[in-house]
Write a structure and sequence with these properties.
Helix content: 10-25%
Strand content: 35-45%
Protein name: VOC family protein
Distance between the termini: 28 Å
Mean pLDDT: 95
Number of domains: 1
Shape: globular
Domain VOC: 1-118
Pfam families: Glyoxalase
Low-confidence stretches: none
Number of helices: 2
InterPro entries: Glyas_Bleomycin-R_OHBP_Dase, Glyas_Fos-R_dOase_dom, VOC_core
CATH superfamily: 2,3-Dihydroxybiphenyl 1,2-Dioxygenase, domain 1
Order of helices and strands: EHEEEEHEEE
Organism: Pelomonas cellulosilytica
Length: 122
């Protein structure tokens, strides 16, 4: 549905380093980059734009699609290693639906980042 979506960050180099490390297990990497901004994504999918061109919005929630529960666990570990704060360990969230497996971290600017897999355990 989206081509891209974006928001400003307070420290572009720190946000770039955090997002690259946290999202690497999901196969998400830089698709385009310029002075003070970058786009993250996967081939043939929408992109997440972030940059340092204005005020940082209040905390936003961004959920990234994972293809497996193992990717969710790897995302959570990578995000914590990159300096994120735990906001929900990997696990089932059956109040959303029976196979909703997600993990949540708070990033450098207070944004709630999630990886989620909707598939049943392999």
């Amino acid at each position: 549905m989206f081509d891209h979506i974006g928001f400003n960050v307070s420290d572009f180099p720190a946000a770039r380093a955090f997002l690259l490390q946290a999202l690497q297990p999901l196969g998400i990497a830089i698709t385009a980059e310029g002075d003070g901004w970058a786009m993250l994504g996967r081939p043939a999918e929408g992109n997440l734009w972030f940059g340092s061109f204005g005020p940082v919005p209040g905390p936003v929630h961004v959920a990234f699609a994972a293809t497996s529960r193992e990717q969710v666990r790897q995302f959570h570990a990578a995000a914590l290693a990159a300096g994120g704060k735990d906001n929900g360990a990997p696990g089932l969230r059956p109040h959303y639906h029976a196979n909703y497996y997600g993990a949540f971290v708070i990033g450098p600017d207070g944004h709630n980042l999630e990886a989620v897999c909707h598939a049943a355990e392999a």
